[in-house]
Write a structure and sequence with these properties.
This is Peptide-methionine (R)-S-oxide reductase. By secondary structure, the chain is an alpha+beta fold. 16% of the residues lie in helices and 29% in strands. It is globular, with a radius of gyration of 18 Å.
Length: 213
């Protein structure tokens, strides 16, 4: 059974239409792929439903965008139970992610420096995998590297992030991946601050930030 979560504008729900009857133009998030609400939309509705585009809505709540971020995080955590992330097809990943998230996390791409949503984020919280929701990094380990990408001195645990040799583009680097779903996160370099001396140079597109309560 597939669980999905997203935002629907108030206008799309007028006339009694639920998640299954939403307007495509009003749907602004899939499975935690949060995007900034468009100006003038007002409040949004967080909908969690099962099945495809015409699935059955099982949970919904009115909220303003900041609250939606927290609510979506909780919904995604509960709906992810039992999913074998390594068995998802390429088409399923495309449906779950934005084009940029798919290119970076599933195809090993790299976002341009200083363009990601999280490189300059200084709020306390946890950075989770945009694909599967696995907690990866704490804001306590984030530091300003001057590179234009979110940088961390260490993951939350050694089991959260896996590493492998990357020989692409004529270089030899250490690639960092989500241990749960193999999402490409970025690369690890030996020029970070003490005590680890490591710099986990990550892509914002591969991460989702969950603010501390």
């Amino acid at each position: 059974m597939t669980f999905r979560a997203g935002f629907v504008t108030a206008s799309a729900l007028r006339g009694g239409r639920g998640a299954g009857g939403r307007r495509a133009s009003s749907f602004c998030g899939v499975n935690g792929g949060l995007v900034a609400p468009r100006v003038g939309c007002g409040r949004w509705r967080l909908c969690v439903w099962v099945g495809g585009a015409g699935g059955t809505e099982v949970s919904a709540a009115w909220a303003h965008p900041p609250a939606l971020v927290r609510a979506a995080s909780l919904s995604m955590s509960s709906s992810a139970a039992g999913v074998n992330w390594r068995e998802l097809t390429d088409d399923e990943w495309r449906q779950r992610l934005t084009p940029e998230q798919y290119d970076v996390a599933r195809r090993g791409g790299t976002e341009r420096a200083f363009t990601g949503a999280l490189w300059d984020n200084k709020r306390p919280g946890t950075y989770v995998c945009v694909c599967c929701g696995t907690p990866l990094f704490s804001s306590d380990a984030k530091f300003e590297s001057g590179t234009g990408w979110p940088s961390f001195s260490a993951p939350l645990s050694k089991s959260a992030v896996s590493e492998r040799v990357d020989r692409s583009h004529g270089m030899v680097r250490t690639e960092a991946l989500c241990s749960t779903c193999d999402a490409h996160l970025g690369h690890v370099f030996p020029d970070g601050p003490p005590p680890t001396g490591q710099r986990y140079c990550m892509n914002s597109a591969s991460l989702r930030f969950v603010p501390k309560e």
